[in-house]
Design goal:
Elements: H1 2-28, H2 36-44, H3 51-65, H4 69-86, H5 100-108, H6 112-129, E1 142-148, E2 168-171, H7 178-185, H8 193-196, E3 208-212, E4 230-233, H9 238-248, H10 255-266, H11 282-293, H12 302-316, E5 321-325, H13 344-347, H14 356-374, E6 383-389, E7 394-398, H15 415-427
Parallel strand pairs: 1-5, 1-6, 3-4, 3-5
Antiparallel strand pairs: 2-7, 6-7
Helix pairs in contact: 1-2, 3-6, 4-6, 7-15, 12-14
Length: about 425
């Protein structure tokens, strides 16, 4: 009986989604041509969107639906006229999805800057129309935990010089390696992030992300990742990354052909390459495909993977909790074509050699980039950012504007005290 009800509810949900998305497509058709690709792509990939992305798209569509035809025509008239001057009707312009050719055509237009302004004005007006008169909800506390492992020799004297001047450096008493485990899993009678940010039973959440570089590091989750949370491990993705890299390196230097090949890569059957914990997680799978196709080093550098994945998570999912653990990389090998993302292990017989000093520099810079990415979004105005260097048991805490550290930074603070106070903040 329960299974029958579940199937009926799933069918009802699917029918509601189909009706909603059909309505979205009708609304998109009312917009100028150059505004349609991104919106169509989101609608077509509805099942791979995170909750934040779905809510944002739904909000935009509600605002768009609130415009009477004459009002929307007036709002978009300037952009439609500009598209005529740009000659968009003569372009090979995809309305179904964002493509490299679309981006190239727009960027090469003499009207590109004007086009961007007009599009932003329309988006702003539609988003404003979707707002109601109710007072905005209070922003909950959020936590970004960035971990520089013990193997990285970070200089405790100069490490935090370029960080946010609002931050506070302090010393950890005891073993700094225990902090992440205490924060994530808590202790008996004291919940951790995994409990505080847990979704309803049976649901999949994107409110807690755990990202790490190395399989040999202290695991952020015991055993297999819990499907309720988003867990990414660079080392565990090695088979998928190697296969993906081989495919990406077949992309020619021709934009139109590249769009076709990259679309084929996106829709290729990667089933046998996915780790077992990715089963039944279309959002997480799509997120990784997008990440690997962005061409930013995430395929070949562990710390670049951690930084870029964390930054994209902040942009796309806006989680309340993010834990990113950096790691050790090997020294680049000579004559391996690393600039074009070749697999160094496969094209060089030289042994891998750890680069602790270089890795420490990279990780410290990239950890700061994660925090800078968070500062772009209003959801993180109430965020605490804690960067921990396990090498010398030092840490740096950035509090929300006007806030102060929830513990005495003039003395060494135990991992238990830090995790306890931050958990209390998240629980509010």
């Amino acid at each position: 009986m329960d299974m029958t009800l579940d199937l009926m509810n799933e069918r009802d949900d699917n029918e509601q989604d189909a009706a909603r998305l059909a309505g979205y497509r009708r609304l998109i058709a009312r917009l100028p041509v150059t505004m349609r690709p991104s919106l169509h792509q989101q609608v077509d990939g509805w099942n791979t969107l995170f909750p934040f992305e779905r809510n944002r798209l739904g909000k935009f569509m509600r605002g768009l639906d609130s415009f009477q035809p004459t009002a929307l025509d007036a709002l978009t008239a300037k952009l439609r006229a500009l598209e005529t001057r740009m000659g968009v009707e003569h372009w090979n312009f995809s309305q179904g999805s964002d493509t490299m050719e679309n981006a190239s055509l727009l960027a090469r237009s003499a009207y590109y800057a004007e086009w961007r302004r007009d599009v932003e004005q329309i988006f702003d007006a539609v988003n404003a129309a979707s707002m109601d008169n109710a007072a905005p909800p209070a922003k909950p506390a959020r936590l970004i935990l960035l971990i520089l492992p013990e193997c990285l020799p970070v200089d405790p004297v100069t490490a935090w010089n370029d960080w946010d001047p609002r931050g506070h450096a302090f010393k950890l008493a005891g073993d700094a390696r225990k902090l992440s485990e205490l924060l994530i899993h808590g202790q008996p009678a004291r919940p951790g992030m995994d409990e505080l940010l847990a979704p309803p039973s049976g649901a999949t959440s994107s409110d807690l992300w755990l990202i790490e570089a190395e399989s040999k590091s202290v695991g952020l989750l015991p055993g297999a990742a819990q499907p309720a949370f988003c867990f990414l491990n660079y080392a565990a993705l090695t088979p998928l990354r190697d296969r993906f890299l081989a495919e990406v390196n077949t992309v020619p230097k021709n934009i139109e052909a590249s769009d076709q090949i990259m679309a084929a890569i996106r829709h290729e059957d990667w089933e046998k390459w996915w780790p077992a914990e990715f089963a039944g997680q279309p959002q997480l799978r799509n997120f990784l495909i997008d990440l690997f196709l962005s061409g930013n080093g995430a395929l070949i550098f562990a710390n670049a993977f951690v930084e870029w994945a964390a930054s994209e998570v902040l942009r796309r999912a806006r989680p309340r909790g993010l834990v990113a653990r950096f790691g050790m990389r090997s020294k680049p090998k000579p004559f391996t074509g690393i600039a074009i993302f070749e697999n160094q292990q496969r094209i060089s017989t030289l042994p891998d050699v750890d680069d602790p000093e270089g890795s420490a520099i990279d990780a410290l810079i990239l950890a700061r980039y994660v925090w800078l990415a968070a500062t772009r979004y209003p959801e993180y105005e109430q965020a605490y950012c804690l960067c921990v260097s396990e090498y010398r048991n030092t840490a740096y805490l950035i509090c929300p504007e006007g806030g102060s550290p929830p513990w005495d930074i003039e003395r060494p603070v135990t991992p238990d005290e830090v995790s306890s106070r931050l958990a209390q903040i998240l629980a509010i």
